[in-house]
Design goal:
The protein is built from 8 helices and 9 strands. The chain has about 280 residues and is of the alpha/beta class. GO terms for molecular function: histidinol-phosphatase activity.
């Protein structure tokens, strides 16, 4: 059963205005049996979006509309494709309580969710890790070295896994190597395999899953999925569920990277953990 557990929507401020129907019809054409719309969850009210364009996430005032639209479409397409209502939730250090409140408020409406790190915190300020080459260069100059940026990112991934975000905490870690997005431009000289093995151990221990994200393959300075093949093989060896995610921000992005995934690993349904 072909599934995509990471799709954005017309409610994404930095995405396209492709309609839900365009995404759904394209998914059906591509042979998907199940899809999860996982729009960027509203950021905490007292958190200042560090992206230069202030467009990282959906506004809270449109959340009900987002859910309502998808509830109608779930019913409309129920005989053609399974549609899950989800969110991609940001783990923001020092905003755990606010994130828990958000999840307690909206979790009951969700079929699926992902927990991701996009924001680094350094000396009292937040930075958007994946915004652009220029922003990443700026982050390196502020933090000191590429290696320190990687170290900070992986530490936040660990903390996201261990964090108490309440009963609706997402159980899938999004694009766990997103820090690789600009690796061709800013190579990292340190080997972080020890940290990555530790992260996989924590994911296994906490009975979580991994977003096997194809978007990195099409990023000109990444050229590999998030995470890359060796991590996927290790996760599979540990029997950590792997859920393919296109991370599509337009309908044409659906299926991106799918043909380049490791061929002999089992892919799971996005709602596997919820159903179990």
């Amino acid at each position: 059963m072909k599934a995509d557990g990471h799709i954005h929507s017309p409610y994404c401020p930095h995405g396209s205005k492709d309609t839900f129907e365009q995404y759904i019809e394209q998914a059906i054409r591509l042979g998907f049996h199940e899809i999860s719309f996982t729009e960027h969850a509203p950021l905490p009210e007292n958190f200042d979006d560090p992206a230069p364009t202030k467009d990282s996430a959906m506004d809270e005032n449109v959340f009900e509309s987002y859910v309502g639209d998808l509830q109608l479409l779930k019913e409309k397409y129920k005989n053609k494709i399974k549609i899950n209502i989800g969110l991609e939730v940001d783990y923001i250090i020092h905003y755990e309580e606010e994130t828990k409140e958000l999840l307690n408020k909206y979790g009951k409406f969700l079929d699926d969710s992902i927990l991701s790190v996009h924001f680094l915190h350094f000396e009292g300020a937040y930075y958007c890790l994946d915004y652009s080459v220029e922003e990443f260069d700026k982050i390196i100059s502020i933090i000191g070295t590429t290696e320190k940026v990687y170290e900070m990112y992986y530490e936040l991934i660990k903390q996201s896994i261990l964090s108490d975000l309440g009963p609706y905490k997402p159980r899938r870690i999004g694009h766990m190597t997103l820090v690789h997005k600009f690796q061709q431009k800013f190579p990292c000289k340190k080997d972080f395999s020890k940290e990555i093995y530790h992260i996989l151990d924590l994911i296994k221990e906490k009975e979580m899953a991994l977003d096997y994200n194809g978007a990195g393959i099409n990023k000109p300075f990444c050229l590999e999925p998030y995470p890359p093949d060796w991590i996927v093989k290790e996760a599979a060896k540990q029997k950590i569920p792997l859920i393919y995610g296109s991370d599509a921000h337009t309908a044409r992005d659906l299926n991106q990277g799918y043909d380049r995934l490791v061929s002999n690993v089992k892919l799971s349904s996005p709602t596997l953990l919820k159903e179990n």
